[in-house]
Amino acid sequence: MGFAFEEIEETIRMVQSEKLDIRTITMGISLRDCSGDNANKIAEKIYDKITRKAENLVKVAEELESEFGIPIVNKRISVTPIAIVADNIKKDEFIKIASSLDKAAKNVGVNFIGGYSALVHKGFTDGDLNLINSIPQVLSETERVCSSVNVATTKAGINMDAVALMGKIIKDTAYRTKENDGIGAAKLVVFCNAPEDNPFMAGAFHGVGEGECVINVGVSGPGVVLAALSKLPKSADFGQISETIKKTSFKITRAGELIGRLAAQRLNTSFGILDLSLAPTPEIGDSIANILESMGLSKCGSHGTTAALALLNDAVKKGGVMASSYVGGLSGAFIPVSEDAGMIEAVEAGALSIEKLEAMTCVCSVGLDMIAIPGDTPYETISAIIADEMAIGMINKKTTAVRIIPAPGKKEGDYVEFGGLLGHAPVMKVNSFSPKDFIERGGRIPAPLHSLNN
Amino acid sequence: MSEQKAIISVIGVDRVGIIYNVSKLLAENNINILDISQTILKDIFTMIMIVDIKNSTNDFNILKEELKNLGENLGVKIDIQKEDIFRAMHRL
């Protein structure tokens, strides 16, 4: 069947003026066969395997960009959580493994490599603890390595010892990268119910249930959704808004699925999942906050924002799930502050607070993401922010995450600047009352009961 | 192998010779034009061509580059994309 002029024109317009892009192609590589008890050997095996598997990743992605005219913004790699691969090596040798990951990422030309991770929702192995304690050094001495730690699940509860520890790790990581506004902490995520096939950094890792090597794709398109919604009349009701988002999401997802399948085919790997997320960029017109505002909120963060986000998130999934049979990852709307021009504006205007962002995370895909807070925030407060967010994920059987940056030397109202996709952000106010005694208790918050739902 | 379709879009300020020059370049590359539609959208000249690049004498990327350069000379923006993306987005 031929194409109508309008159809062709629509696709071209989506790419050229509404910023439709494939946010990321992430190659997941299993490193389980690289484990051992000699750090040098593990590092060598890891480097060899990654550079071999991902040798053509960037080349193929660039070919596809050129042939289909859709930009692929990020080419990345995720690997088996390193705590599993290197459970048996000494604490001060973890940097060797991390440097090897960094070097391999540089060699194949990807901008981030995820999987410097540990899953400790129920307890720590010695290797887990060694890895976590090495995170500040690793994130300050490597350039492309990203780290995540899963500290809670719906089935296991919340490891509060890990929550307490992560508060310290985040602070230390930020402090060690103080020349760059604490950018190390922007490469570190704390998760509840971490997905094993998520292609988005900093939380990407290649889960133990995954195959040898897969291609996962993350699509993005807040600009396209915003443009579609802005064509609706002011009188359009929520049913029409949802319908419009669904249709747009379907088209975005189909584009991602095509690119993902072709990439997998050309790289001789299998196609994993499509993560149908609306992920903003700091560019004007590519913002989740602006979509919410287009539904009639004067500023993102006002009362009504959570409802608007719930509608958006659900409609994106409904449209996307019809378009691709293998949907996974985080799938939904991301609400990072520093990466979204509209969110930054809402914080500056005083409309958006951490508390409201926390409420919004109950209905969207990730969590408290890319939020800068004062550098002198006590670690217990950071841990308590993590605990709250983990509780939301645990009780609601969803993924939640915290990526927060205690910007060294900065106060509320100051700015941090990370550059590129990570953007810039105003330092936000945190509640000054101390949760110290609560965090110091340690132990584990038991898993919730899931009958008697409320 | 049957046809391998690509879609060429030309967007910019109207002037004499746009269709002529694009068609000429395509003919030189042994590319068959299957369909042309052209309109003025909001005062901007917009042309969409569906072409068959199966017998193209040039690699896709070189062709893309040549079209881009031609566009710069003519003061318009010329893009070429393989057809599959349109099929994926608009056809079930």
From TrEMBL, chain A:
<protein>
    <recommendedName>
        <fullName>UPF0210 protein V518_1143</fullName>
    </recommendedName>
</protein>
<dbReference type="Pfam" id="PF05167">
    <property type="entry name" value="DUF711"/>
</dbReference>
<dbReference type="InterPro" id="IPR007841">
    <property type="entry name" value="UPF0210"/>
</dbReference>
<comment type="similarity">
    <text>Belongs to the UPF0210 family.</text>
</comment>
<comment type="subunit">
    <text>Homodimer.</text>
</comment>
UniProtKB/TrEMBL annotation, chain B:
<feature type="domain" description="ACT">
    <location>
        <begin position="7"/>
        <end position="81"/>
    </location>
</feature>
<dbReference type="InterPro" id="IPR050990">
    <property type="entry name" value="UPF0237/GcvR_regulator"/>
</dbReference>
<dbReference type="InterPro" id="IPR002912">
    <property type="entry name" value="ACT_dom"/>
</dbReference>
<dbReference type="InterPro" id="IPR045865">
    <property type="entry name" value="ACT-like_dom_sf"/>
</dbReference>
<dbReference type="Pfam" id="PF13740">
    <property type="entry name" value="ACT_6"/>
</dbReference>
<comment type="similarity">
    <text>Belongs to the UPF0237 family.</text>
</comment>
<protein>
    <recommendedName>
        <fullName>UPF0237 protein V518_1142</fullName>
    </recommendedName>
</protein>
<dbReference type="InterPro" id="IPR022986">
    <property type="entry name" value="UPF0237_ACT"/>
</dbReference>
